[in-house]
C-alpha cells in the first residue's frame, strides 16, 4: 500500500471506519447489498498454498537484503517466481519493463488464453515492498492471494466467457507507477475493453478488519458482489473510501469500474470494530505497516483465508460473465492524459499551470494543474477537445479539486470556472472561488450527456485579482461514458 502522498490526506480515524495509507472519508455503513450474480459454487482457495507463496516471498527478501523493493534484486526475483508459476499453469505472461527513480523495474501481466478478448476482466495488486522490509502483508498477501486464485482457476476446468487478465504491479510504493505505466501503454481501444478492475492490497493484516472499497460509482456492481459475499458468510464488513490510494486509481481515472478489499494498516482499531471483528481495540490493524517487522509472522491466517476466498469468488464470477461477443461500446475515459502525468500532453491553454512543482500536492502521482496562486491579476486556462460518441447512453465529466487561499470573508475575489465549449456557445458548469476554500481534494461531477454526438472542449478558466493568492488545483480528470 503506497504511503500518503501528502500530509493533507494523511489517515484519519472516523468512528467506525479505519484506514491506513487508504484515507477514510465517510462513515462505515452496512447497507443491504444487491443480490449477488448467479455463479458456480464459490471456490475454497487453499490458504495453505497461499501461505507457501508468502514463505517463498519471505525467502526471496531474506536472500536479497531483507526487502523486495522496486529496482532491487528481491523484486526481480519475486517477478521470476510468479512468472514461473503462471507459465506452468498455462497463462500467457508478459514482463513489462519501465524506468523509475529507483532504477528499472517491471509489471507482470498474465492472461488466460480463453474467453472474449473484447471483454476483459482484470484482477491485481502490487508486488513491491518498501525498502526496509519484506512486505509480506503489504503486499505479499494480496499478490499471493491473486496468484493462488489464478492457479486454482487454471486447474479447475472452468470455461471462461470473459478474458481474464492479472496484473502484478511494480513501483506502487513510489506513487502507483506500475499501474499508471500499464494504463498509459494501452490504446484507447484496449482500455475500452476492460470491463472491471479488482484490486487486492493487504488482505492478511494481523489485527484485521474487513473493508470494501466504496469510492467509484461505476464500480458499484462489483462492490456489491463483494459485500454480498461477506454477508453470505456472516462476516461484518465496512465501506471505505480509498481515494486513489492504491493501483485501482489508474483504472478508475479512465472511467473503468473498480472495487477491492482491504484489511487495514496503521490506523487504530476502534472498540466497536474490535467488538464485531475480534482483535485488539486501540492497536493498529497492522502494527508492522511499512516496517521491517512486516515479515512472515505478520499475517493473520483467518483474514488471509477469507481474503483469498473473496478473490476466488470474484475471479470465478467475472470470468464467467457474458458481456456479449461484439466489440464493447466506446467507454472508459475519453480525456487523454487525464491525470497530467505526461505533463501538458493533450492539453492546451496557458503555459505553466500543468506542473509537478511540489508547492501544491498532486492528488495522485506527481503532476496536476495548478491554476492561480499568483497573488496578482492573472488569467489562466487549460482545455482539451473531446468527441463524445452519439452511441453512448451517458457521459459524465468528473475531476478532483483542491483550493487554498490567503483571502478571507465572503467576497469571491478569485475564481475558477468549469466550462464546456460547443462551437460558438460556452456553458459554465460551475464556478468555484476563494469563498469556502478547502485545502483537501473533493470530487466534482457533471453530466455531459446532452453533448453526445458532438466534439466539445472541456475548459478550466481561472481569474485572480491583484492581491492575496488563491490556488485551484485540478487532478485526476475523467470524461466517462456508458
Explain this structure to me?
This protein is of the alpha+beta class and 482 residues long. The chain has two domains: 7-319, Aminopeptidase (3-Layer(aba) Sandwich); 332-481, Galactose-binding domain-like (Jelly Rolls). The protein contains nine helices and 19 strands. Helix 1 (47-62) runs antiparallel to helix 2, helix 1 packs across helix 3 and helix 3 crosses helix 9 (301-319). 53% of the residues are buried.
What is the secondary structure topology, with strand pairs?
Blueprint: H1 47-62, H2 73-89, E1 92-100, E2 103-111, E3 116-126, H3 136-156, E4 162-169, H4 177-185, H5 188-192, E5 194-200, E6 211-213, H6 220-232, E7 238-240, H7 248-252, E8 257-262, H8 271-277, H9 301-319, E9 332-333, E10 348-349, E11 354-355, E12 368-372, E13 378-387, E14 395-405, E15 415-422, E16 425-433, E17 442-447, E18 455-464, E19 470-481
Parallel strand pairs: 3-4, 3-5, 5-8, 6-7
Antiparallel strand pairs: 1-2, 2-4, 6-8, 9-19, 10-13, 11-12, 12-19, 13-18, 14-17, 14-19, 15-16, 15-18
Helix pairs in contact: 1-2, 1-3, 2-3, 3-9
Q: Give the strand tally.
A: 19
Q: What is the straight-line distance between the termini?
A: 30 Å
CATH class of the largest domain: Alpha Beta
How many helices? 9
| Subunit arrangement of the protein | single chain
Give, in spatial order, the strands making up the sheet with the most strands: 1-2-4-3-5-8-6-7
Structural class: alpha+beta
Q: In CATH terms, what is the fold-level topology of the largest domain?
A: Aminopeptidase
Instruction: Determine the fraction of residues in helical runs and give it as a percent range.
Output: 10-25%
The assigned CATH architecture of the largest domain is 3-Layer(aba) Sandwich
The gyration radius over C-alpha positions equals 22 Å
Q: Beta-sheet strand percentage? A: 25-35%
What kind of sheet is the major sheet? 8 strands, mixed
Average pLDDT score: 89
**Structurally, how many domains make up the residues?**
2
Overall shape:
globular
- Classified in CATH, the superfamily of the largest domain is Zn peptidases
Spell the H/E element sequence: HHEEEHEHHEEHEHEHHEEEEEEEEEEE
Low-confidence stretches: 4-39, 326-330
